[in-house]
Amino acid sequence: CVRDANGRIKRDPAARREFQRQHRCPANGRTTGACPGYVVDHIVPLKHGGADEPKNMQWQTANAAKAKDKIE
Known about the structure:
There is one protein chain. This protein has 72 residues and is an alpha+beta fold. Helices cover 28% and strands 14% of the residues. The protein has two helices and two strands; from the N terminus they run H-E-E-H. The chain has helices at residues 13-22, 62-71, and strands spanning 38-42, 57-61. Strands 1-2 form a two-stranded antiparallel sheet. It is globular.
């Protein structure tokens, strides 16, 4: 996977915006801005070869995301 100058995996902000446009926030129904209690999650993690594309993204509760991050 591609990394930035700090060693972090590069993400495409346009892909996240497109995901939000296609999938309304479960908490407030908005297609832009913050989604309280939820994060955008990559179904197949980028570090495991997942694509940084809307089709590989899903809404996930913040608590579920923390638990998933512990096992990945």
